[in-house]
């Protein structure tokens, strides 16, 4: 599966952005989807993940209550709605896909990655 992330940009603290990740192929519904982010000089970190059907979601504590992950299997797309953004949310955001069924919060658990989209939150 090939992934294409989009929707990043520059936003003021307290603002919102919605990221999208479009997947190629006809088997999108077979993949657990995740969002990760990487700030300069830091390791890539887990943000959120959603199960194949969309019935189960899981978030990093740092974004819980502010970010929402969702998916539309008919459109082969996963979304990350980001509200109440903070300067510390500044990073390159990556979408990832894997057919695994585990908790899927580690980058090494995902086989497929998008190219990343920059999110910058100004104070």
Task: Explain what you see.
- The structure is a single chain.
- With 123 residues, the protein is mostly beta strands.
- 0% of the residues lie in helices and 48% in strands.
- The chain is built from no helices and eleven strands.
- β7 and β8 (77-82) form a beta hairpin.
List keywords for this structure.
mainly beta, 123 residues, 11 strands
CA radius of gyration? 13 Å
Question: Structural class given helices, strands, pairing?
Answer: mainly beta
How would you spell out the order of helices and strands? EEEEEEEEEEE
Question: How many DSSP E strands?
Answer: 11
Segments where pLDDT lies below 50 for 5+ residues? none
Largest sheet entry: 7 strands, mixed
The N- to C-terminal Cα distance equals 37 Å
Short description:
This protein is mainly β. It has strands at 3-6, 9-12, 17-23, 32-38, 45-50, 57-59, 67-72, 77-82, 91-98, 112-113, 117-122.
